[in-house]
Structures are given as structure tokens and as C-alpha cells.
Amino acid sequence: MYDFTYQRAVSVDDAAAKVEGADDAMLMAGGMTLLPTLKQRLAQPSDVVDLSGISGLAGISVEGDKVVVGAMTTHATVAASADVKSKIPALADLADGIGDPQVRNRGTIGGSIANNDPAADYPSACVGLGATIVTNQREIAADDFFTGLFETALDDGEVVTAVKFPTPSKAAYMKFPNPASRYAIVGVFVAQGSDGVRVAVTGAGQDGVFRASEMESALASNFSADAVANISVPEGDLNYDIHASSEYRAHLVTVMAKRAVNKAG
Prior knowledge:
Blueprint: E1 5-8, H1 12-20, E2 25-28, H2 34-39, E3 47-50, E4 60-63, E5 66-70, H3 75-80, H4 82-87, H5 89-96, H6 101-104, H7 109-115, H8 122-129, E6 132-135, E7 139-141, H9 142-145, E8 146-148, E9 151-152, E10 160-166, E11 170-177, E12 184-193, E13 196-202, E14 210-211, H10 213-221, H11 225-228, H12 246-264
């Protein structure tokens, strides 16, 4: 681990000011990704700004037809929330399958989406449900938030404060997990709501989470597993590594989509 200056923020404005006042600062939420990255010397920030001391960033509420999840809310809290289970059971199910109990009780939704790991689960829920990411500066549609591998639309000093999830009429998430890390080798989130059908894929894309538009069109006409059974995504756009080839990932996208549709139906 390289030397850095540790700073503990007391408010969102304070966190933003500390980031903007440092040479190369990084925000820390639960630390589930950042701390291992620092230990392995894969990052060398001048400062680490800890968000855990900021009150009001954790919690879940229902506002009209939306479920609002505070950025510092842990995965375990989302999984156990009666509001989430009632309004968006697929989101609770997704959160319950992240990592292990230690990760779920420490990791946060804001940290996960701000990091935008290409195999993370939450980006698929955000895109699949058409969520809105709220920051200290603006609101960003999920379709515009995730911009590439470990990249988002966040500016320097911009802090995620909450995520607003619209309540769908149907939704489900299915993933083929890495047996060790529980990260998604491929995960597919399917949702039907007021703006139609959305299918979001994580774990497979070279640029991170993406929408399977052909599957969306098919499901809009016939919301059944048969509608997507013969639809595949192009292999050339998919990841390949020691865990799965791009060909296998393409196969898994179709399989997980079928399972998600059956589960949602």
C-alpha cells in the first residue's frame, strides 16, 4: 500500500470540498473494492475521503411509485428491507446474492455503482429498472450514468447520495456467479414497467453493463422465455477470461435471460 492522507468527511459538501482540495483523492464508501485495490498497489491516491461518518446517506424510503435507496445503504439492508421486498422483490433478491455475508454487511449500493465493476450486480438493476442516480449536483438517468469499464458520468467532487428505482410490474434477476467471488460471470436483469420492457446484462460486456435491445423488443410483444430463446448477443462485444470465453458468455446471456423471464412471469 502506498502512503496517502486519510480524511473523514462530516457532510456531503465537506466530502466534495476535500476531494476538490486534494491532488488526487478517492472517495471510500464501504471500502470493499477500494481497500483491496490499495493493498495491491493498484491505486495511488493522494487522499482517501471516508464517507462513513456522514449521516443521512443510508436508508430506504418509498416515494410515490419509486423506492429510494440512500447511497451508504448496505447490500444486506436492501436484501432485508420490507419496502424493497414488497415493491421490487427482484432488487432484494439481487442484493442477497452479492458476495458473502461480510461483503453484504459492509458494501454499499453507492460504492458499487460509483466503482462500476463490469461484473457487479447493481448496475444491471439500475439500468434494468430505469433508475435515476442522485448526486450532490444533479440527477442522472442510469442509461447515461455507466459510461465504460470502471467509468461513470460522475465529475470530480460529485458524490452519489441516493438511487431512485421505479416500481416495475414484473422484474427478476438471474446470474451465473463466479463460485469464489460471487461476482456475475453473466447476470441478466429483466423488468417490465411503465416505459416498457428492459433487459440489462452485466458481467459480459467489454464496456460493462448494457441493454439487450433485441430481447427487449421480443419481450414487449411476448413476455415469455420462448421469446428470447433464440436470441443471442454478438460474441465480439463480450469479455473473455480464465472464467469464461466470449462464446460461453453469449450462451449464458440467453440462458440467464430465459430464467429471469420465467422467474418474473
